[in-house]
Amino acid sequence: MTVRGTVRAMNQHHESTGPADAQQITLRSPADLADALPYLMGFHPTDSVVMVALHGRRGRFGGRLRLGIPGSAQEWPDVAEQLADSLISGSERRGSRPDAVVVFLCQDPAREGGARHTVERLRPLAQLLRTACGALDVPVLEALCISGGRYWSYCCPDARCCPDEGNPLALPGTTVMAAAAAYVGIQVRGSLRDMEARLAPHTGPGAQAQRRALDTAAAALVARILDARGRVGVADETLALARVLRDRLGSTPTPVAVEEADARDDRLIEDGEAAAVILGLQDRDTRDRAAQWMEGAEAPRALRLWRALARRCVGPYVEHAAAPLTLAGWVSWSTGDEPGARVALALALRSDPQYTFALLLHQACNEGLDPETLRRCLRGDDDMPPGPPGDTPAVAAAGATDGPALSPAPPAPVGGAPRRTPAKAPRTAPSRGARRLPDPGGARTPRGSGRPGTRPEAGGRSGGPGRDRISAPRVPRQRRSGGGVGASPDGMTS
């Protein structure tokens, strides 16, 4: 088995500009593939299915995608078919059908049974992925399980090279792939779990104080936002306060340790300040104006602010995290951090699967498009064509980025099979307006059909799709971790 990989700096565009910005590495064994995975993704995937397309006689790396491993084995057949179809059809849209696929299943060892038990439990999923790719006439060249610092091959029957106890992963930084990645500036950002934890809502003692601050801000802002004149004032106040917080964070030295840096940022923002900005960002026009902090010295400061605000969306306000998470994803993408962008945008869609700006940015990032089109729109350099009624300029520009036309597909309903959207007739989700504000006096049961996975509307929708609106509160729905039915894979081009 020989695979030819090209290692490029993560802050460059997907197409190589010549031999100076790329270094080719030949991978000859399952050990080489297992070592290459975090450099292909930009992080160590945890609890994930990763599929990588290979092209040509030498197995050049192509498109890749990731999805959280579904918790229920009953979902595996449909998920396997969906992932195989997504990878192969996505590669064809970018101009080349894969000649083979490599599959990685990454999951921590089970509490009972250890890593070996995890390998055997996931074996049927590996076989389903191999079968699904084979049904599309694309063979799986290798399928690896990575668990507990070791790897196993589902394809190699030779116990001399792939024993039952697995093989240890190489020590970090000791392989040819690690040296090549360091040469071109690729950094592995830790595990996917660590990246998600930086954006997760607080759950400690401070969460209750933050929730009370959000309740207080909601009581003060709802009436003003519903008034046209008051809404303008709230927007101006939100952006002014956000600038103060952004500059406050930027004026303080950043600790080296990630945990310490995030804790320091949290201490610099008071609960009431965070609440006011979080609620103000639920207005789409205000959010788009904040999205202009996307480059130069403003970008890293804004990214820290959006991360900190996402962590403050606690309790019933967790869905409000879609706005700061989308802004964090946008700034990450704009500044060249595609792995960070995908993680933030995926979490935004986990908070609100129909958040249009996140849907479009996530798809554009996964398609390998250039963010400069959206940057030009936000700078005011370009006159963008008008989008659908109710879309803000930023949403219209995100849907018109250079490349294939983008239209967000709605998530599959919870409890059903993953919905496939035909490439020739994509289904679009309605534009979303301002977030609904929870009732400071306590949530009440929303009206709706009562079916699992439905998003009931509390009251009628006025003005058609895309209108900013504040609706009555609804009971926060339970979320599922990882992948599974209704989840969207993270695509990644070579």
Key traits:
alpha+beta; 494 residues; 41% helix; 9 strands; two-stranded antiparallel ribbon; 7-stranded mixed beta sheet; 16 helices
Describe the structure concisely.
The protein has 494 residues and is α+β, with helices and mostly antiparallel strands. The protein has helices spanning 30-41, 76-93, 114-135, 176-184, 192-197, 206-226, 228-250, 258-268, 271-280, 284-290, 298-311, 322-334, 338-351, 356-366, 372-379, 393-398, and strands spanning 3-8, 22-27, 48-55, 60-68, 100-106, 140-147, 150-153, 167-168, 490-492. Strand 5 (100-106), helix 3 (114-135) and strand 6 form a beta-alpha-beta unit.
By DSSP (H or I, 4+ residues per run), the number of helices equals 16
Total beta strand runs: 9
Kindly state the mean pLDDT as a whole number?
77
Q: Major β-sheet, in short?
A: 7 strands, mixed
Q: Give me the strand/helix succession.
A: EEHEEHEHEEEHHHHHHHHHHHHHE
Cα distance spanning the termini? 20 Å
Strand content: 5-15%
Radius of gyration: 23 Å
Q: Residue share in helices?
A: 40-55%
State the strand order across the main sheet.
8-7-6-5-3-4-9
Q: Would you identify the regions where 5 or more consecutive residues have pLDDT less than 50? A: 6-21, 400-482
What structural class is derived from the secondary structure elements?
alpha+beta
